[in-house]
Amino acid sequence: MAFPVVFFRIRWTHLRSQELLKALFNNFYYYSATWELVEDMKRRVLLTCIGVGFLGVIAAALGFGAESKRIKESDIDFIPPGKCTYPRTPAFALGLTAFLVLIVAHAIINASAGCICCNKLSGAWVTFCAVFSWLVSALASILLLAGSLLNDRHTVDERYSVDFCYEVLRPWIFAKGAVLGLISVTFGVLYYVNISSIKDMNQMATPVNADNHGNIAMTQPQVPAQMTQQPVFVPEDTYNRRQFV
What we know:
With 245 residues, the protein is mainly α. The chain has a domain at 90-151 and 171-207. It contains five helices and three strands; from the N terminus they run αββααβαα. It has helices spanning 3-68, 90-113, 124-150, 173-204, 238-244, and strands at residues 77-79, 83-86, 154-157. A three-stranded antiparallel sheet has the order 1-2-3, with no helix packed on it. α1 (3-68) packs antiparallel against α4 and α2 (90-113) runs parallel beside α4 (173-204).
């Protein structure tokens, strides 16, 4: 009689089907959670890049605006004996605002991406973007601050040099600061995008499970282990032999 053999094979096939269905469900749950996490990461990175880029453009526009409003030769008042007075122009406020906006943009980049010293997996290109962004932003900040101070109200003594009063008329100082500030923000965004992609790949490699509060944590997809126990073959006359015993 083949009934025990058929029953055992049907039972084994049913168990195997349950394992396959469970594995398919776990894999579907894993990839669904992973896809949602990736989309959330991309959305966060995109919003940060748009915000920082907008601040960089604002800082550059303020710098060029300060360049157009800087002190002209006709604005200098000569006071005898041997003194000259400079008025405060709108370039002072514009340059100072551009400096503050540039600082805020780089603060957002550093807060979002983290310090380059703590990211051990960053490559040479990521390190170059971070260091170059810091150096150029420092130079841009110096130019914007120097231009703002030169366009503040102050009085100088010209008796040491005839052309001493005209030394404050430094053309393109705000324009240089604006261009360098925009370049520094661009490389800062490149650094943030690269370091975020590295962090995202590392986070996606960690396990995902749903905790008691319904939150989702990362896990590896579960694949059922192959059943090592093969179905046991039972001879058809086993039942008959037991009846004769």
